[in-house]
What we know:
Number of helices: 7
Strand order of the largest sheet: 1-2
Distance between the termini: 36 Å
Structural class: mainly alpha
Largest sheet: 2 strands, antiparallel
Amino acid sequence: xxLTPLLFVxxxxxxxxxxxxxxxxxxxxxxAADSGDGGAQTDDSGGSDSGSGVDFxxxxxxxxxxxxxxxxxxxxxxxxxxSGSPDRYGAPEEIVFDTVAQAWSxxxxxxxxxxxxxxxxxxxxxxTEDQRLKLRYWLxxxxxxx
Length: 146
C-alpha cells in the first residue's frame, strides 16, 4: 500500500534516517523502575543520555502538550488521574494530570512509571513504544511547561 511509507515517516517524526536511539537504550537507565528521584538519567545539557554519551535531545522532534502530552495523558492516565474521575482506583488524590502545569510538576514520576521500556503505568498496559518515546521527548527535551 502506498500510504505505509508515509505513515512510517510520520510516525517517526518525519525523519527517514538518523532517528532517535531505540527504546531499549533507555531501559538500562532506570526509567522503568522508580528510584525515588524520578529515574530520569539526564545531565545538565538538557537531555543527554548519560549512559551513552549521545545527546538524546539534539535531533528530537517537537513534542509538547498540544501535539502529544494532553492526548496521551487523557488516553493513558486520566481514567485514574483526572480530578473529576468518578473512581480513581486507588490513585493518590494529589497526582492529577488535568493541566500542563500539573503534568510537568510530576514529570520525573511520569517518566519513571510510564516512560520506560517496561512501564508500570497504566497498570493494565496499553502504551506503545512510539508513545513512550514521544513521552520521553516531551518531558526530557521540551521546554518545561510546554
